[in-house]
Every structure is written in structure tokens, then in C-alpha cells.
Amino acid sequence: MKKKDVHSYTYAYEYIRDQILSGKIDPETKLTETSLAEKLGISRTPIRSAIAKLEQEGLIKNKRIFIPSSIDMRNIFQVRILLEGYAAKYCANFITENALLRLRECVDIGHNGTTEEIMNANYQFHQIIVEEANNPLITDIIERMQSIIYLARKTVVQQKRPFLIEEHELICNAIESHNGELAEQLMIEHLQKDLEFSLNHISN
Amino acid sequence: MKKKDVHSYTYAYEYIRDQILSGKIDPETKLTETSLAEKLGISRTPIRSAIAKLEQEGLIKNKRIFIPSSIDMRNIFQVRILLEGYAAKYCANFITENALLRLRECVDIGHNGTTEEIMNANYQFHQIIVEEANNPLITDIIERMQSIIYLARKTVVQQKRPFLIEEHELICNAIESHNGELAEQLMIEHLQKDLEFSLNHISN
DNA sequence: AATTATAAAATTGTGTACAATTTATTTCAT
DNA sequence: ATGAAATAAATTGTACACAATTTTATAATT
């Protein structure tokens, strides 16, 4: 699909990541460099790079798929609450006009879009807020957790958690009216509800 | 705890890391796999692993040493404030007796130790609080920032920032008396002062 | 049968050669 | 000289062979 991403290790990374996230790999199986290399028809070197990256993203641990426990999920969401809560508060004062428009668009898609579109809009909504916090480190940290966050988002969107979009809308409104404290509080509650719903609806 | 760390990539990692942190590498020079491999007398493969790790720790960027700007430092400390502030608050309720003792010991060493001992005690002080928050992800994130945090700590300790140890003592007291809100607030102010001092006393 | 010791297999770590790509240098036309 | 194009050099990406290590299976001892 890309021209620039001809590199084998990118290909391997995306392939393995998709296999894990779509649940096509039995969680028990050990991901060995050799077998993956054979399956993809490339050498072990790029496979190793790909696994290293997935390991630092927390999707793989000790060469095995890492399925987050409830506690792991709570830990991840605690970090999200701290960082995204801060980002929401910060946004209320410093968000750009353009970003606010895109944020509003995410809410709209949330109301009218297809499941796939909503999945993406949901991601974008949080991403915009994080990026508008103007702290690349925070963006990085959140980015690193995406693979696991994805699992929760899939659950929440596909199983249609109630008030999901309405909560986005409230956050959006709070940011628009420059109410940082409210935006932060709403974001915290929003994430807590996402967490609880995910834990009670373990899909795959 | 010390395993068979004969692995070349561990050796390479520690060597390169030390060279950077002690300022022995000119920030302009590009860290090429080949030249490092030659210098250390090993092959490029383990060098590559080492560089990948240092890159994800933020000490290297695009194969060049990453010297954090003032803005970068502020961003890093913003994350510390969020995570360590939370950890301090959490600690006030859930810290173990043993950890509290070790925390107190760090304060004592801060008063009486040598510069090197204080450096380590300072690290330990923050580390204990972070670990007692019982969230391995938070521990990981902080751990990943250590290399850069080290630069600030060196400045603060070696140039004897006023009230450094006293602030630790106050935080320790707040935790001991289960005053979470106070512990958090003190930690935030403590980190802010560390940041400002570091920015005004750029040592290397 | 359980436990330990030994051997075999699988897997990861490392070195090295070469290909692909990026970066630096030279050449040439204007 | 300046800038574009061509070329050379440096560097990274990949494959593969072999060594070191870890894991698994097998045998031996109690």
C-alpha cells in the first residue's frame, strides 16, 4: 500500500501487529524469529527489529503475545487519565481553531458514521486533544500505548457503549468554552467509563 | 540481580550511554554503527540493538546525541509532575512500612552523604515513590526518561540547589502522615524548582 | 513415580558479506 | 561562481552462517 515503506521490518511490524490485534495468533504461541521469518519470506534481522518495537509497545512480552489483565488495563487507563486529563485541561486554553473544528467533526462522525468510521473518529478525537497539548513526549507515550488502547476502543465502539459520543460532545463543548477544569473532569470520567465497560465486555 | 551480562549489546548499550552522559562524545558527531562496532571490537548487530534502545530512551535521535532543549526539559518535567505527583498522592495511603523507612534513609543520606551518595539517594527517593504507586507502566515510563532526568539531577546535586533535601523531607513527612493532597502538591513544587534550577544552571 | 542428570533440539546472539539507500563529492552547463 | 546532474563514498538494511544459550526431551538414579 505504501511506496516508502518497502522496508521489510516495517512490513513485518505491521503484519505481526495486525495478526495480534485481530486475534489471529493463539496467545499461547511463542513468536519465534525463525518461524515468522519463514512465514513472511524474509530474514530474521527485520523480524527482530519488528519484535523489538512491538515489545516496547507492550504488545509482546518475552516473545509471547501480551494479553493485558484487568489490572494491566487499569494501569494503562490510569496513565491515560493523568496525561489525557491534563491535555484536555490545557486544550481549553490553547487549542487552535482548526483543531477545534476537527474535534467537532469527530463528534459528528460519532453520531452518523459507520462502525469503522466511528472507530477512527474515536481515535482521532483523543489524538487531537493529546497533540494540542503541545508536548511531544506525552504524544509519544500515548502513541506507544495505542496497540493496547485499540483493544479497548474496539470493545467500546463495536458493542456500542451508551453515551460514548455524548461524552465526547460534552468534552468538546467544555474545551470550546475554555473551561479547563470541566474538560479535565469530563475526560477523566469518560475514560473511567471506557475502562469499566471494557472490563465488563471482554470481547476477544 | 546481576545476571550473565556478557552480552555484547548490553556492553555496547552501557558504554555508549556512559559516553553520552559524561559528555565524552561531541554532540555533533553522528553515531554510526560501523565506527562504534570498530571501537568496541564487536559487530554491528549488537550495536544496532543498543542504539535502538537508547533511541527509545530519547538519548539518541536520528543517530545523533539528543541534547534536550529548554522546551524538551519542560515537557519531560511536565510528565514527571503528572506521574510522580500522582504517585506521591497514592503513596500517602498505600506505602509499605519498609518503603517509608527507605524513603527516610534517602533523606538522611541527603543531609550527610557524599555527592555521589546524594546523587544515588536522590534517585532512590523518587524511585521508591514511583514504585510504591504499584503501576508498572508508570515505573516503565519514568525509567525510560531516566537518562535525561540524570542530566538534571547532576546539575541540581552538584551545584547544590538550596532546599533540595528539605523538600524531600517535607514530602516524606506528608506521606508518613497520610496527607496525599499535600504530598502531591509538595512533589509538584519540588519538581518545578528542580526544573527551573536546571534550566538556569546548564552545566554541560 | 519423582527427581536429577544428560543429550538433543530449538532459539537467540553475533559476525560477516553484500544490497539498497542515503549522503557527500565532483562534474558540467549556465 | 551557482545550481543541477552525475558519480562516488558512506551508511544502513538484509540475508545467512555459525556460536552461545535456552528449552525440551530422554535417560538414569533413587
UniProtKB/TrEMBL annotation, chains A, B:
<keyword id="KW-0804">Transcription</keyword>
<dbReference type="InterPro" id="IPR011711">
    <property type="entry name" value="GntR_C"/>
</dbReference>
<dbReference type="InterPro" id="IPR000485">
    <property type="entry name" value="AsnC-type_HTH_dom"/>
</dbReference>
<dbReference type="GO" id="GO:0003700">
    <property type="term" value="F:DNA-binding transcription factor activity"/>
</dbReference>
<protein>
    <submittedName>
        <fullName>GntR family transcriptional regulator</fullName>
    </submittedName>
</protein>
<feature type="domain" description="HTH gntR-type">
    <location>
        <begin position="6"/>
        <end position="74"/>
    </location>
</feature>
<dbReference type="Pfam" id="PF07729">
    <property type="entry name" value="FCD"/>
</dbReference>
<keyword id="KW-0805">Transcription regulation</keyword>
<dbReference type="InterPro" id="IPR008920">
    <property type="entry name" value="TF_FadR/GntR_C"/>
</dbReference>
<dbReference type="InterPro" id="IPR036390">
    <property type="entry name" value="WH_DNA-bd_sf"/>
</dbReference>
<dbReference type="InterPro" id="IPR000524">
    <property type="entry name" value="Tscrpt_reg_HTH_GntR"/>
</dbReference>
<dbReference type="InterPro" id="IPR036388">
    <property type="entry name" value="WH-like_DNA-bd_sf"/>
</dbReference>
<keyword id="KW-0238">DNA-binding</keyword>
<dbReference type="Pfam" id="PF00392">
    <property type="entry name" value="GntR"/>
</dbReference>
<dbReference type="GO" id="GO:0043565">
    <property type="term" value="F:sequence-specific DNA binding"/>
</dbReference>
